[in-house]
Each structure stands twice: as C-alpha cells, then as structure tokens.
Write a structure and sequence with these properties.
By secondary structure, this protein is α/β, with parallel strands linked by helices. Helix content is 40%, strand content 21%. The protein has eight helices and twelve strands. The mean pLDDT is 90. Bound molecules: calcium ion (CA).
C-alpha cells in the first residue's frame, strides 16, 4: 500500500510519514500543491493525505482536478480546526474523509488504513482469508491452520498486499511500488528476499503452498499451483 502526503509543513509531513511507515505503508511526501497534483496523477496511490492550505495550488483545487480526471484515489483531507465550510467544500469536492488539525497521529494512521481498506475491494472485511491462512488487517494477527505467525512490519505489508490481490499475479515492480518507498534501488533483489522470508513463514511445513512464483512474471497467492 502506497500513500502520498501533500503537506507544506515539513515537520508535520515527516511525522505523518513516520507514523504511516510504522504501519507498513510505503510513503511519499511532497510539500507544495503543484508537485502534489503531478505526483497524484503520475503514480497509482492507495490513499492521499491532503492538506488544504498549500503553496502553489490549494488542497481543494487539487482534489477537484483529480476527480475531474476520474482519479478516485481515496483522499483524507486535513483541515484547520473549526473550518466547517472548508470541510463541507472538501466533501463536496470528493474527499473521502477529513481530519481537523491538530490531529492525533494514531487516528490519522487508522483513518488512512480504513480508506485503503474500503477502496481495496475487500470493502468491509477486515480479515483476509485464503485456505487456512487468516490475516486480520486491524490487529495484524496472521494465522495459518490456527498457528500464529510472527512477521516484521515489511513482511506483513508484503503479505497483505499479495493477499488483497489474491488470484492475480503481481510483478516485482508493482510489489516494489506498493510495499516500498521509492528511495530503494529497483535493481535490488529485495522483493525476492522478502518473498522468501514470507514464504518460509507461511508455507513451510504445510502440504499446500499458498504463495507461488510465476516464472519471469512475479508472484501470486492462490490455493492451487
Ligand atoms: Ca498547510
């Protein structure tokens, strides 16, 4: 899951970035409206955290532009406290949620999580299932055949992404884009390394593997080979 933050206050942007990274999101942050709009239109994000007051182009104008271009990426709008009109305008312009400043970082992260859940097709289901594998996306508890599996934040993010795309083959670049930030060198074999770790944890010792390699293309989670 990849999130874009458009917030001119660099300190706030960096706090938000860290809070979302701790939740396993890949995060990009930009500090002015024009750059924000370009990033939002160029890269496929799973959610955008959008401040209203921005230099270059304000948040509402970015939002209207995205929606007019049929970009439906879920948007969490950050509004100044007490600006009810601003929030109404925001919702009318196509925002999916809003959070008045000052906000609590934990709440912001929870709301972003809820937005990505809603948009991922698994609508209300917070538990992702495949055969005897269960992943609770709220508690992040992973069970295979009733046994708890411990995953690192990044391993979990990779598993959740693949599971949300279950039955569909995900290419390395696609996985890289959704699970890692772009400061990683795409030439590394990071994805393969993490795939191996996740596979060792969820498939080892089980008769039917769930995480499959599609040679030359990528990876897919499904019941049969
Ligand atoms: Ca601002």
């Amino acid at each position: 899951m990849r999130v874009l933050i458009i917030e001119d206050e660099k300190k706030s942007a960096s706090f938000i970035r860290r809070a979302l990274q701790a939740e396993g999101f890949a995060v990009d942050a930009v500090h002015n409206g024009e750059e924000g709009l370009i990033a939002a239109l160029t890269i496929s994000y799973d959610a955008i955290v959008l401040d209203i007051m921005l230099p270059g182009r304000d948040g509402l104008s970015i939002l209207r532009e995205l929606r007019s271009k049929s970009n439906h990426t879920p948007v969490l709008l950050l509004s100044a406290r007490g600006q009810v009109d601003e929030r109404i305008d925001g919702l009318n312009a196509g925002a999916d949620d809003y959070l008045p400043k000052p906000y609590v970082l934990g709440e912001l992260a929870a709301r972003v999580r809820a937005l990505t859940r809603r948009s991922s097709g698994e609508s209300r289901s917070v538990v992702l299932k495949l055969a005897d594998l269960n992943v609770d996306t709220v508690t992040r508890k992973v069970l295979r055949a009733g046994q708890t599996i411990d995953l690192s934040t990044r391993e979990y993010a990779l598993l959740e992404y693949l599971l949300r795309s279950k039955g569909r083959v995900c290419g390395r670049m696609q996985i890289m884009e959704k699970v890692w930030d772009y400061d990683f060198d795409p030439g590394t074999n990071l994805v393969d390394v993490y795939i191996r770790r996740v596979r060792d944890k969820i498939d080892a010792g089980h008769a039917r593997p769930l995480l499959h390699t599609v040679r030359g293309i990528g990876y897919v989670m499904k019941e049969q080979q």
